[in-house]
Amino acid sequence: MLAEERTVAIQHRLKRDGRVVAADLAQEFAVSEDTIRRDLRDLAKAGLCRKVYGGALLVAGPAPKAGPIMQRSTLAADDKARLAVAAAGLIAPGQIVFLDAASTNLAIAGAIPRALPVTVVTNTPAIAVALSDHAHARVILLGGVFDAERGGCFGGAAIAALQQINADLFFVGACGLHGQIGVTAFDPAEAELKRAMAQQSTRLAVAATSDKIATIAPFRVAPADAVDHLVILPDADPQTVEMFQRLGTNVHLAGRPS
Amino acid sequence: MLAEERTVAIQHRLKRDGRVVAADLAQEFAVSEDTIRRDLRDLAKAGLCRKVYGGALLVAGPAPKAGPIMQRSTLAADDKARLAVAAAGLIAPGQIVFLDAASTNLAIAGAIPRALPVTVVTNTPAIAVALSDHAHARVILLGGVFDAERGGCFGGAAIAALQQINADLFFVGACGLHGQIGVTAFDPAEAELKRAMAQQSTRLAVAATSDKIATIAPFRVAPADAVDHLVILPDADPQTVEMFQRLGTNVHLAGRPS
DNA sequence: CCGCTTCTTGCACGTTAATGCGTACTATTC
DNA sequence: GAATAGTACGCATTAACGTGCAAGAAGCGG
Fold it and tell me: PROSITE patterns this protein is in (chains A, B) (predicted)?
């Protein structure tokens, strides 16, 4: 692994979780803690994080003053943006990602790092527009009759088109998320498309704002144990979170910069 | 293996993985690491990657300069808006309208009266987004691989989908418009889609800003006598306009409001 | 066909970056 | 105020780097 690559990964991690632990990083990247500390020290010197005893935290304040151009700062302004940055951190280079119609998914698209090569398959024109200026993002748009209410295309054509694609990761825009019932949606057509996407994807991720958690919508999309990754905010219902953890879901807490 | 061939392969790999390791490349292409380093150095000098210790990383996109469509559409905002209003006036209630990818067409979509019931078929996600809040506009989106440069989808899937539809009116986004040559486009894929749309539409309309008039782009879309309606600004080249009038085209002059 | 140039490649060299370890220091905890 | 965990510093080692140079291949003119 390249050194620079590692520091990028650490920044990614920082944005995703809001904090990093030196010892964990050392084990994960198979380097000594010294090296990690050096990385963190450099990042802190560049104003990209705040070094603390045992690790580092996401810098809270305004944009780092040093950066002249400072690429679009994905500094998480509000909850949804933080969630989106954390969720985007799950995407590995070169992966194929499904993003269905949801405001959270639009935020995730906006949080994809500009240097990350990725193929995004979506039924949401707004996501395609949001990714127009990502030089390394390829976008495949699922067409059909556009549902202005939900902001996406849900026809049979969209489903038929996506069934030709095998994705690595599907961020399902959840209308409801419950520890026993699983992922649910408000609309039958929406639910059908989500189910099709889930079937064509290796992994399933849910990035849920706290108001969605522990709620149930009428139409089932996927059972709780099908959720591979769950990205949540600190104030998410702990009981639901625990339930998912017991099912083997990887839970990611979108960090709050203090 | 030729040198240039190798550098192309390296770029390919960069784009795919977001990073390359010099040692791996050296082994894969059976050359010394020195040679790989030289390649990477040249690529970096050309701005195609970022050289780091041990390899190279994909460079982040150059600038967040908003989508190309947006950029173009802000140029002559007033003129374009007047043109769009006049063009939108050609749409009768209940009609089915093709709008392909063009900044003028985006403006036309925005100029469609909210009370007008219409079905818009487009390959441009930005148009779908613009029409989201039109309660009486039904939008059918043509999907496929999204071309960020042009802001639309141009694949065979888009053409196949639109060929199932018979429209009343097609606003062709013209890259060039000439009294003898007719409508032309800059891109072959773009031209092919435009031709397919023209074939599926009863009438063909061109709303052209004055800089497009009396110019020719490389790829032919439709002959001049196929244009049923021409919407222009007052300062359009009078010779070209007259030529179209002689061919039976209805010429509409976008009124100057003030 | 022969010399010439140009380009690419690999190798040898000294230089620099990155890492891990030992040691001494400092923060945190109880 | 120890005990513990984390940190800073210096140093040695390794890997990667840049440069200069020479060998070989391809192109060119005579």
Answer: HTH_DEOR_1 (PS00894), HTH_DEOR_2 (PS51000)
Which of the 46-85 residues on chain B come under 7 Å of nucleic strand D at their beta carbon?
51-55
Distance, Å, A38 CA → D3 C1': 26
Give chain B's residues under pLDDT 50.
63-71, 73, 257-258
Query: Which CATH number is B42's domain given?
Result: 1.10.10.10
Amino acid at B119: T
Q: Is the Cβ pair B61, A135 closer than 8 Å? A: yes
- Looking at the fold, whether A243 and A119 belong to one and the same domain comes out as yes
Whole-angstrom distance, CA of residue A233 vs CA of residue B121: 39
A159 contacts in chain B (CB < 8 Å)? none
Burial of B236 (0-12, 13-18, 19+ CB in 10 A): buried
State whether A115 and A193 are in the same domain: yes
Domain extent at residue A241? 79-253
Helix ranges restricted to H, chain A: 3-17, 22-29, 33-45, 79-88, 103-111, 125-130, 156-162, 188-199, 238-246
My answer on whether A170 and A229 are in the same domain is: yes
Half-sphere exposure of residue B112: CA atoms within 13 angstroms, side-chain side: 32
Q: ipTM above 0.95?
A: no
Least CB–CB distance from B140: residue in A5, A129, A146: A146
pTM, to two decimals: 0.82
pLDDT computed for residue B189 by the predictor? 94
Within the 106-165 window of chain B, which residues sit less than 8 Å (CB to CB) from chain A? 125-126, 128-129, 131-135, 137-146, 148, 151, 153, 157-158, 161
